[in-house]
Amino acid sequence: MTQDQWLILTILTATVAMFLWGRWRHDMVAAGALLACVVAGLVPTGEAFAGFGHPAVVTVACVLVLSRGLQISGAVDVLARNVLPAQSGRVLSLMALMGLGAFLSGFMNNVGAMALLMPVAIHLAQRLELTPGQVLMPLAFGTILGGMTTLIGTPPNLIVSGFRAEAGLGSFAMFDFTPIGLAVALVGVLFVALVGWRLVPARKQSGIEGFESGAYITEVRVLEDSKAAGMRLREIEDELADVDAQIIGMVQKEVRLIAANPGRMVHAGDILMIEAEAESLKDVLSILGLKLEEEVKPEKDEAPEEDEKTGATASRNEDSDKSAKQEDGDEAEAAEASLKSGDVVLMELAVLPNSPLAGRSASDILLRTRYGVNLLALSREGKRSMKRLRSMAFQSGDLLLMQGPPESISEFASDNACVPLAERELRIPNKRKIWEASLIMLFAIGGAAFGLLPAAVAFAIGVLASMALRTVPPQQVYHAIDWPVIVLLGALIPVAGAMASTGTADLIARFMIENVAQGHAVVGLALILVVTMFLSDLMNNAATAAVMCPIAIGTAAALGVSPDSFLMAVAIGASCAFLTPIGHQNNTLILGPGGFRFSDYWKLGLPLEILVVAISVPLLLVVWPL
User: Fold this and answer.
1) pLDDT, tens only, 218-247
2) Closest of 590, 535, 572 to residue 138, by C-alpha
3) What pLDDT, in 10s, does the model give residues 74-91?
4) Are 570 and 156 in contact (CB under 8 A)?
5) How many angstroms separate the Cα of 431 from the Cα of each of 230, 321, 466, 575, 577?
6) Neighbour count for residue 329 (Cβ, 10 Å)
7) By three-state DSSP, how is residue 548 classified?
8) What is the distance between the alpha carbons of residues 465 and 460, in angstroms, rounded to a whole number?
C-alpha cells in the first residue's frame, strides 16, 4: 500500500467511526474529512469545494424546495383525503397509507412526505384502535421504500447516478431505478401491511408535537363555486363528520341564525360558524370548498346582522361602527396587502389575565388596520358564543388563531399581553397554488425524464418558477433546504474521489473479491448490497452511498462485469435502513411519537431487509445483467 492509500484509509476509518459515535453532526464530520484530505494533499486545494457544484447536490437542494411547494400549497392534503379510505379495516388502511407515502416519496423528499402524513397516521391509529407506533413505523418504512423508485426519490440515487457519470457511462435516467425499486416497494408494502405491522411493539406515544388546545370557533364563507352551495345543513354536517367538526350557527342574508333548521338550504355568500380542532380546519375548508371569513374582503356596504329570534339589529357602539368603516377603507387594503406578501404564518396566542384585550373585540381594536393580521378562530374552553367572530369580546385565557407576517403577530402579542403558544403548520388549501406547484414539479420531472434537460437544470428552473409564482415564497426558499445534508454531500464527494484517484477503492474491492466473493460475481453483488445496507443502518444513507460507490465500481472492474448492477445494489442498500432509528431521518422522526426504544426497529426491520435482499439480487441480475 502507498502512503496516500494509508492516509485515505485512516481518514475514512476515522470518518466512519465519528459517524457511528454520533457526538458530532454528520455535516461536521464530513467537512472535517474533506479538510483532512485537503491538508494531506489527497484533494487539490482548487477542487476542495467542487462537490458543492456537483449535479447531485444541486438536484437534492432543488427537489427540497419543490417539495416544500407541494407541502404549503395543500396539494398533498387534498391527495391524502381523496386516496385514503375512511372506513376500511386495518390491512387495507395500512396498505393505502403506505402506498400513498411510497408514491409521494418517489417524487418529493421522503422526509417531507413522512412529515406531512404523520398527523394522518396518528388519526388513523386512533380509528383502528392501534398504538401510534404501529402505524407510524409502517408509514416510515413505506416512505423509505418509495424513495427507491425514481432518480429524485432519495439522495443516494442521485449520488449513484453522479458516480456513474464520472465513470464515463452517463447518468442514470429518471426511471432507471423504477423496475427494481417499484418491485421491492410493492412487496415490502404488502409484507408490512399484511404481516409486518404485527411485529411492531405496542408502546404508548410520547413527545408528539403540538398540544390539545380545545375546539376553535371559526367563520367560513360559502363561495359561488363551493361544494356547500346548494346543500342542506344536515348534508354539510354529514360531510364534516369524519373530521370532527360541527356547525353551530350561520349568517344568511345578514340574519344570524343560532339554531338553524337542519333542512335549511345553504347559498353562496352565507357564513357558517363552525366548531373544530385547529388541525381539522384545513379539511373543513378543502372538503366543501369554503373560505375563511377573515380572508374574504368585506363588502363596503355590508349591513349589520339581525338576530333571527328578536329580529332586532345587533347593537354596536359608536366606536365599533367607526372601526368597521375604517377597516373597509384604504388602510384596511394596505393591511391586506401585507397579508398577501407571502411570508405569512398561522400562530396560536393565549390572552393573559392582564391583557388590554379583555372586553374588547377585533373590530374595537382595528385589528386588520393596525396590525395587518387576521383573527381566524377563537377557542374558549367550556364556553360557546353565538356572536360574530369580529365582534366577540376577548377574555383572559382565550386562545386566538392568528394569520399574518410573523413580525406583525409578534407586535400584536407584545402590545396586548398575549403569549405565543405554537406556530401551526396548517396548510389552507389554495386551488391555484395546488395546480401551480403540481405542474411545476410535473414539468421539472418531465424535462429530466425525457432527456430535454439535465436533472439539475430542470429542477433549478422549477425552483425559479416556484419563486416567481410564489408557490414557495422567496423568503422561505432557503429555509426549505436541508443544509446539513447539502454540506454532507458536497464535502464527501471529493473524499470519495480521493478514494478512487489513490487506488484505495480498487484495493478494497480486490480484498473483498479474493477473500469473500472468491471471484464469483453474484456473490460479490450480494456482498456489496449487504455491506451497504449494514452501513446505512449505522450512518447517514447519503454518506454510505458516497463511500460505497467507488468500491462498487472497483469491484465490478476487478470481476470484469458491468458496474450498473453493482451501483444499483448500492442505491438499494443505502436506501434500506430499517434496523435502527439513526439510519434514516424518517426512522428518527417516529422515535418519540411512537414511544419506541432503540431495539424496537429490528423486529420489523430485519425480516424486511432479508426480504429486500431476496428480491433485489435476482432482479438485479435480470434487469441489469452482469
Assistant:
1) 788 888 888 888 888 888 888 887 777 778
2) 590
3) 777 777 777 777 778 889
4) yes
5) 21, 35, 15, 34, 37
6) 11
7) helix
8) 9
